[in-house]
Design goal:
The protein is mainly beta. The chain is built from 11 helices and 34 strands. The chain has 3 domains: 247 residues, monomeric porin ompg (Porin); 126 residues, GMP Synthetase, Chain A, domain 3, CATH 3.30.300; 265 residues, no CATH class. The chain has a 13-stranded antiparallel sheet with strand order 20-21-22-23-24-25-26-29-30-31-32-33-34. It has a 12-stranded antiparallel beta barrel with strand order 1-2-3-4-5-6-7-9-10-11-12-13. Strands 14, 15, 16, 17, 18 and 19 form a 6-stranded mixed sheet that branches.
């Protein structure tokens, strides 16, 4: 440590200084900022960052997302050594930029640090940042932890005396929103600057308002000085490495990896070139009544099926009159349904007789028809190569409900039965267990699907574990309510092969704007039984309503039956069984800016009643980042550590990373804790997520890819 300051001074004195544009870097808490202190800057919209910082006896891992241009959110998992043992802490941050920077005015942001957690890092702040050429200066005022060094009476005390004091400690077992403490108690100023010395190196210095009272009491270091210093090195645009000095007595390091769902790391997706539209010759005619000739319809299906299959699209059926053609298809390749519809339309223009002047494409997903997309053939021939071709094509297109189509009469021969399977490596992770914060398992997974008829799907997944870093003795759940989820660690450690799921599903259209599903079997890894779902979703609406009910029984740890084993502190005990009826009413809404909201109200697996709220930001390339929270009639104290169920959800499309079209996605759910309250059945392919890609709001959001 004694060598750090003179070496740094020498580097700065001898470096060739070249000014760069102001850039946003991350602080030791994983938020845009200086060393420890926040700034009022925001990362690029939708930027996703994972940072790891190590200083003394503290390690912080932070996932940060620029939720909107002004709103930043973060989830942090930290460990700190204490005399009584290691403390593993989970916390959430939120920051909102109130004002943008102008020529005269600084950017101003207000933030909540560790506003849901145990309060280890709890603090609030108002920060202002102003650019002076490439240098960004920041000043602010903090409360809580950020108001602990050189503090003074809270200036908000002039509003109310309630702001003068801040309660010590936190209620219960953490995880609650302690709003009664926000902006309360003593306050303190902080300030600093970030200076891009070169295109890759940024110097950051700050006066910190954090006294690090807890860490000093643990004997981690001495707080000799409030001045901190850091050097950021931008290895590449997505990788930041930082060395920093704190308190005059400690050094630390920080590494940040960033990505942006808006931009694929490999650039634009390398899509296969579509077949061009074939304009009709004016002299071309077709005999009247040609559509009644069975051999001609059969010949068209025979010609179209392999060409569409080569393009990753399956022809389910083709309905014809002399002037109208309706093709029912299932897209297995393209993330964007308009792109698949555009490919089908161009292929049909090459194959259909000239008398057909109206073409309709019915996109199906998992056997269920979502909509009917109708366009004049003239529009295809006119707008393919024009500068505004996509928008002109959308203006000429009509989207209606597809429930009334008789798919049986239009069914193509040889479509069913279908069978597909895949086999490959599989990595599963279990996070945040205090005995093993990151438990990984490497194995192989076999997935198979049999489709004997339209809408009927039988799917199964078999997994074999090969190697893992699980602890020898699983942690026994201390939950005082029924163990509907908290014994998951015993399921994870089952010797394989494990039948993770085996389900028969029937999806159908009971009427206009209505979608239905029946499921039976091993519905998920921990539960099996019967499930039914009904969705009301008009094709042109942003709003939908659903109802789901399931009668389930808990499965055994080894995945071979419905006789779960009782878990004791000694390990596995006598058989027991648990069954329940769970279900929810759900409301869905798609906002114009890519935000999607879902509200569920009903009965959960532990027979508790309550509601869940989930808000996702979704991107046209298939990325999804969101968060959810669930509150039920189980009290915070009975729920246990964390107080209520909450988490972060992500869906990452394979096409985004590999640069080739694919409909495969990887789903990730990050829960600070897996407890029993507010637990839902983990079903895949719920109806709303299946059909909405074929409805007007989502089609319009992605319509720019119609001609791709």
């Amino acid at each position: 440590m004694k060598l750090f300051w003179p070496v740094l001074s020498g580097v700065l004195c001898t470096a060739h200084i070249s000014f760069a544009e102001p850039r946003v870097t991350y602080n030791a808490y994983g938020m845009p900022g200086l060393v420890d202190m926040p700034s009022a800057q925001s990362a690029l919209d939708a930027e996703l960052s994972f940072s790891v910082s190590q200083s003394g006896e503290s390690l912080r891992n932070t996932l940060t997302f620029q939720i909107a241009p002004r709103l930043t959110g973060a989830f942090r998992y930290a460990s700190t050594e204490r005399p009584q043992g290691t403390l593993y802490d989970r916390s959430f941050d939120l920051r909102y930029r109130l004002l943008d920077e102008t020529h005269l005015r600084p950017a101003v942001a207000v933030g909540l640090q560790d506003f849901i957690g145990t309060g280890v890092y709890s603090g609030e702040y108002v920060a202002a940042s102003k650019s002076f050429g490439p240098v960004v200066a920041t000043a602010g005022i903090g409360w809580g932890r950020l108001g602990s060094h050189n503090s003074f009476d809270n200036p908000l005390g002039v509003i109310s005396s309630r702001f003068d004091t801040r309660d010590a400690g936190y209620t219960g077992t953490g995880g609650r929103i302690e709003s009664a403490r926000w902006f309360r108690g003593p306050a303190a100023f902080f300030a600093g600057f970030a200076w891009p010395v070169t295109d890759k190196v940024t110097l950051k210095a700050e006066y910190s308002s954090d006294a690090y009272t807890q860490e000093v009491s643990y004997g981690h270091f001495e707080h000799r000085s409030p001045f901190n210093l850091a050097l950021d090195y931008q290895i590449k645009p997505t990788v930041q490495l930082t060395a920093y000095a704190q308190h005059g007595d400690e050094i630390g390091i920080l590494a940040s990896l960033t990505s942006n769902p808006k931009h694929s790391p490999g650039g634009a997706t390398r899509d296969p070139a579509p077949m061009p539209v074939l304009p009709r010759a004016k002299a071309q005619v077709a005999p009247a009544g040609w559509s009644e000739i069975p051999s001609l319809r059969s010949a068209l299906i025979t010609a179209l099926t392999p060409v569409l299959r080569q393009d990753g699209i399956q022809l389910i059926g083709l309905s014809l009159t002399d002037t109208i053609a309706i093709a029912t298809v299932e897209n297995h390749r393209y993330q964007s349904q308009p792109q698949a519809i555009g490919h089908v339309a161009r292929l049909l223009s090459n194959a259909l007789p000239a008398s057909v002047d109206t073409i309709a494409v019915v996109p199906m997903v998992k056997g269920i028809a979502g909509s009917r997309v109708i366009f004049p053939r003239d529009a295809l021939e006119t707008h393919e190569a024009t500068p505004t071709g996509a928008s002109d094509m959308r203006a000429a297109t009509i989207v209606t409900d597809a429930a009334a189509i008789d798919h049986r009469a239009a069914a193509a021969e040889g479509v069913f039965p279908q069978f597909s399977w895949s086999f490959g490596p599989d990595v599963s992770a279990s996070l945040f267990d205090p005995d093993n914060p990151v438990a990984l398992s490497l194995g192989a997974k076999l997935t198979a699907e049999w489709v004997p008829a339209r809408g009927v799907y039988v799917t199964g997944t078999l997994r074999q574990n090969f190697v893992d870093n699980y602890t020898s003795t699983p942690r026994y759940s201390d939950s005082i309510i029924t163990h509907v989820r908290s014994d998951s660690t015993f399921y994870d450690r089952a010797n394989g092969p494990v039948l993770q799921d085996l389900t028969a599903n029937y999806r159908f259209r009971p009427g206009t704007n209505l979608y239905g599903r029946f499921s039976a079997g091993y519905l998920e890894r921990m539960y099996g039984g019967l499930s039914a779902e009904l969705l009301w979703k008009p094709v042109d609406s942003k709003f939908g309503l659903g109802f789901e009910v399931s009668a389930v029984r808990q499965r055994s740890f080894d995945g071979l039956g419905f006789a779960p084993l009782t878990v004791t502190t000694a390990g596995l005990g006598a058989p027991r069984s648990y069954d329940t009826i769970t279900g929810h009413f759900s409301g869905y809404y798609a906002f114009d800016n890519g935000l999607h909201a879902q509200l569920d109200v009903g009965r959960y697996l532990a027979k508790d009643w309550g509601m869940s709220v989930q808000l996702n930001r979704e991107f046209n390339n298939g990325w999804k980042v969101g968060a959810y929270a669930t509150l039920t009639d189980i009290s915070f104290d009975d729920f246990g550590e964390g107080s209520f169920d909450k988490g972060i959800v992500m869906e990452i499309p394979t096409s985004w990373s590999i640069g080739r079209p694919s409909r495969v996605k990887r789903s990730v759910v990050i829960r600070p804790l897996l407890r029993d309250g507010g637990a839902k059945l983990d079903l895949s392919d719920r109806l709303y997520d299946l059909v909405r890609d074929t409805h007007v709001p989502q089609l319009e959001a992605q319509w720019g890819r119609f001609w791709r």
